[in-house]
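Standup notes, protein team

Yesterday: finished cleaning the Vulcanimicrobium alpinum set.
Today: L-erythro-3,5-diaminohexanoate dehydrogenase structure.
Blockers: none.

Input for L-erythro-3,5-diaminohexanoate dehydrogenase:
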Amino acid sequence: MIAAVTPLCRLGSHRVIEPKGALPQNAWKVDNTPRALANEILCDVETLNIDSASFKQIADTAGGDERAIAARILETVRERGKQHNAVTGSGGMFIGRVVAIGDELAARDDIAIGNRIASLVSLTLTPLQLDAIERVDLATGQVRVRGKAILFASGIYARLPDDLPVDVALAVLDVAGAPAQVRRLAQPGATVCVIGADGKSGMLACAQARERVGPGGRVVGIVPDGTTPSARLLVDHGYVDAMIVADARNALSVIEHVPQAMPHLADLVVNCVNVGGTEVTSIVCCRDHGTVYFFSMATSFTAAALGAEGIGKDVNMMVGNGYAHGHAVVALQTLRDHPAIHDYFVARYATATASEIPTR
């Protein structure tokens, strides 16, 4: 039943069930009735891209069992009306097809019924109803579903590009904020350190950093395993000048490698990991008055703030805003401009196999 609140709110507060006065993202439960009100867009949902931190937490809890993962996602959506991981506080995004547009949004010229789009707002604020989960892909965190989702008037979305496989576009758009913010923050001649450089956000961040710092700058990656295809790609194609192989949760282990890899520390540190406990490592890699950009959804504000205080580091710390003006365009173009990374993404995401999960 649609929550009876008038007037309708462009931010979606009329869908909040509890607690009253909250916005959809920080609400515990939202109304997921699959009907477009005047200021909403209704979509048939095909795929959920669960964010990396959330998917890892669900998968670890489920012991890597696809059926158990599917059951947990269905349980969350039934309980909360949205895919909002109560442990990580994060969600993801979806791909779907527009089936209805509310009267107040009918004049928009960037969307029409039948368009296939990717949502660029978090599933933590997206009313979602799932009829079934059909496939779970452990390698990518992508989940094939049958269901409906609501986008609010404030919601952002992107038409899917014609030149990329759908699964590849979804993977890129899920982390679009990372390359866009690096493009803003990295300066010519700077040293940029990317923690979790071998993941999808990390690879795109390294590509943008390489472009921005130029020949006088330096890009350093930190990965737990230097033998993976993605880590080797970054080294072999010159996206990083140095690769530190260490567990970023162990700050002392990373510190041992810093003097050789980054003699003057980093002007910009970008944290792209999907596990907690890497806040202090991010801070120790950054010079005083430099910037640490926590793109990771596993970041603890408390650990970052008290960690910097505890080691006496005066650094600027940024919350990883997943949105930046034009971030979808920047992310997709970054992929197009870097053939080696493009080919890796296509091989990993477009051809990924998934298990059939007949769960309802």
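Follow-up from PR in the comments: Residues 339 and 351 are 17 Å apart (CA to CA).
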